[in-house]
Design goal:
The complex is a heterodimer. Chain A is α+β, with helices and mostly antiparallel strands. Chain A is built from 14 helices and eleven strands. Chain B is elongated, with a radius of gyration of 34 Å. Classes of the chains: A alpha+beta, B alpha+beta.
Chain lengths: 368, 351
């Protein structure tokens, strides 16, 4: 108790009642999810993928329905048919796009234009759909973002990230978090997000350092094995079997090292940005959201999840998915201002969120 | 009436569209269900057909939505299931999802179905797709591929007209023996540049052979014809279309279960499927080799000519490599042996 008191005294200077901080929790279990998961996979395979829309509904209902805040669970309301229609549209577009790309490469300009308009539109549809089919305490979420914001966050952002070799990634992250976070509604109340670029750059620097250090190590090892690599390029190609074996080994190790470096850096960054963005989000102007993932722990859970899933040929995947969700939920919380019960008594549904739901279909898949 | 009233479950009731909730009991009353407040006052009700009861998923709260938009929520899933069972409604999917030894059978069925789909359904769908593909598709595909290659990699041939004609005559002779006939193919000579000694076929019957390959062959025109017969095999067996459809089909299936297996495992599956595509490509090469032997024999030519090409590859390019999981083509020594065996077998059959 003494420790806890000192901790809260040294904490933020705002006069928050400690009782009013509530974390999410996860009440599902890998054992329970296993059955849902394997039946999903089986039915998806025998229906050649068509059941995957209904599988998604059952999966999301399980994960939302076990995500608990203040003793109440979230709920996912989408119907399989809505998801199937969305998938058919996206699938048809992808086929059309690829066919055109193969047969009429000259039409590339038109296609690029179509893509630029069509993808943000699908993203908006997807975000709005995901928000509207999510409820908490019988009240739906809603999403009011427009195509322009989606264009900036999901087309311009990734493009400048690639063009600047990742240097502007924090800017792109900020755009997308702000676009999603500030256009989200619950009842008639708004969420607002404004993560500072400086804070995002702080976690970006760590990831950049990991990549630079990793590449230097790879370059150093490559330098030590210069003799092997040179034979690849000088054209004579007199590869003895031993040299061939060591070349393949070098190739495989290099490939793995490259991917693990970028993988770890990405995971560190993802967790860091989530912390910054969620902690810069308020609901209804006063209730402060918090995310306090440990970057190392987050990366460790992700990596060991993939390894365990592979070693068990997929059978431990349900356990891994539950483990990750539980960790993320338990490191996400809300500081409520004032009386929580009173606040929720006042929140009521806005008409629009549900009214158009049955007309709605999902665009690109975006979960919250 | 009173005798038909039974309590189903306890939970909470929300007015329509409101996050406010009050403790409530759900009761069965005659042909419908009602939500009652703590004081026994009816909060909402409706006939069973008009009430929407959510399907069970694990142990998440069960929702009962009334026609007026209000909601009764309970965590007592078993009680709801008992009630629905009395009404003759059971959820088959949930029954199978329960943690039960029967799940072992579901796992086995999943593995078996996965293998069966990969082995039988995907190839069958590929055949259907190849059948319904209009001939214009490979034509446009080939025209744009050749155009791109001409612009980037290939150059006009420096070969003498005399040498070109000699090869073309031989080629026409074997093309006549093929299913598509002489008119089904167009042979093009190009300078290979960076791609070196090579020959390849586009799906509409456009064949390209590089000067470098012809120089490598020297005076052995028969060997070049053998290599071209191999390329005819690729066209006749429609390998490129099949490979495209196959890759698309497998990628599509993996994407469908992607949400259930997670993105990390999905990436690895895609890479694995890529390796399997390579094995498919090795199979296609062997099939084209056999096709070359058949065509050459039908045309009354040296059916083992293409084997000499592999000798040459081994000598000049020092290619002794065995087949590995990472190669698109079978190992050279292996291929030569398979060709000689097949030619001998055909000859034995003919006598």
């Amino acid at each position: 108790m003494v420790v806890a008191e000192t901790a809260s005294m040294q904490g933020t200077s705002t006069q928050r009642v400690p009782d009013n901080f509530h974390r999410l929790s996860f009440s599902g279990s890998g054992k329970e999810y296993f059955g849902i998961w394997i039946v999903n996979v089986l039915l998806t395979i025998i229906t050649l993928g068509i059941y995957s829309a209904w599988a998604k509904v059952r999966r999301n209902r399980y994960f939302y329905g076990n995500t608990v805040l203040l003793g109440r669970a979230f709920e996912y309301h989408a119907k399989g048919k809505q998801i199937l229609i969305g998938r058919v549209i996206v699938f048809a577009y992808l086929i059309f796009y690829n066919v055109m790309l193969t047969f009429v490469p000259i039409a590339g300009i038109i296609l690029a234009l179509l893509l630029v308009v069509f993808v943000p539109w699908l993203v908006v549809r997807g975000l709005r759909f995901s928000a509207r089919v999510t409820s908490y305490r019988n009240v739906r979420f809603d999403f009011v973002g427009g195509v322009g914001g989606a264009f900036l966050a999901f087309i311009v952002g990734p493009v400048i990230s690639v063009l600047t070799l990742g240097i502007l990634v924090p800017l792109a992250s900020r755009w997308s978090y702000r676009y999603i976070g500030s256009n989200l509604r619950y009842g008639q109340r708004a969420f607002t997000t404004d993560p500072s670029v400086g804070a995002i750059y702080k976690s970006w620097f760590l990831s950049a350092a990991i990549i630079v250090a990793g590449l230097l190590i790879i370059a150093f090892i490559g330098f030590l094995n210069l003799a092997v690599i040179m034979t690849l390029f000088d054209g004579s190609y007199v590869a003895t079997p031993e040299l061939q074996v060591s070349m393949i080994a070098l190739f495989v190790i290099g490939y793995l090292a490259f991917f693990s470096i970028f993988g770890v850096a990405t995971l560190f960054y993802r967790a860091g940005v989530r912390n910054v963005a969620w902690s810069a989000t308020t609901f209804d102007g006063k209730h402060q959201l918090t995310s306090d993932l440990s970057r190392g722990r987050y990366a460790w859970i992700t990596i060991t999840n993939v390894i365990v899933t592979l070693l068990t040929l997929g059978l431990m995947r349900p356990w891994a998915a539950v483990r990750m969700t539980r960790y993320v939920n338990e490191h996400t919380g809300v500081h409520f201002e004032g009386n929580v019960g009173e606040m929720f008594d006042k929140i009521a549904q806005e008409g629009s969120a549900v009214g158009s739901e049955f007309m709605d279909f999902e665009g690109f898949d975006f979960g919250f | 009436m009173a005798s038909s009233v039974t309590e189903i479950a306890v939970g909470e009731w929300h007015p329509a569209g409101s996050s406010r909730s009050v403790p409530s009991r759900l009761i069965e009353d005659g042909g419908g269900v009602k939500a009652l407040g703590e004081d026994g006052v009816e909060l909402a009700g409706g006939v069973l057909a008009a009430v929407d009861i959510s399907a069970r998923v694990g142990a998440i709260p069960r929702r009962v939505e009334f026609p007026d938009g209000s909601l009764f929520e309970t965590t007592d899933n078993d009680a709801m299931d008992r009630f629905l069972k009395r009404k003759g409604k059971t959820s088959l999917v949930h029954e199978w999802e329960r943690f039960h030894p029967r799940l072992i059978a579901v796992v086995l069925a999943t593995v078996l179905c996965g293998v069966a789909i990969y082995r039988y359904a995907v190839p069958a769908l590929v055949e259907v797709a190849v059948l319904v593909t209009p001939p214009i598709v490979p034509k446009i595909m080939s025209a744009s591929t050749l155009e791109t290659m001409d612009r980037t990699l290939l150059d006009t041939s420096a070969l003498s007209a005399e040498r070109q004609n000699k090869i073309r005559d031989g080629f026409n002779a074997i093309a006549r023996q093929s299913d598509r006939g002489e008119g089904g193919y167009r042979l093009n000579f190009r300078k290979g540049g960076t791609i070196g000694p090579n020959a390849f076929a586009l799906p509409d019957g456009t064949l390209i052979v590089t000067d470098e390959l012809i120089e490598l062959a020297g005076d052995d025109t028969e060997m070049i014809i053998g290599v071209l017969a191999h390329e005819i095999g690729h066209v006749e067996l429609e390998h490129s279309l099949r490979q495209i459809y196959r890759a698309a089909g497998v990628a599509g299936l993996i994407m469908m279960i992607g949400g259930d297996i997670g993105s990390g495992a999905e990436d690895i599956l895609v890479q694995g499927a890529g390796l399997l595509t390579l094995s498919y490509s090795r199979g296609a090469e062997s099939a084209a080799d056999r096709h070359s032997v058949e065509l050459m024999q039908k045309a009354g030519r040296d059916s083992t000519a293409i084997a000499r090409f592999f000798d040459l590859l081994e000598d000049k390019l020092d290619d002794h490599g065995d087949t590995s999981i990472l190669s698109t083509h079978p190992g050279t020594p292996e291929r030569r042996k398979a060709i000689l065996d097949y030619a001998a077998q055909l000859r034995a059959g003919a006598q």
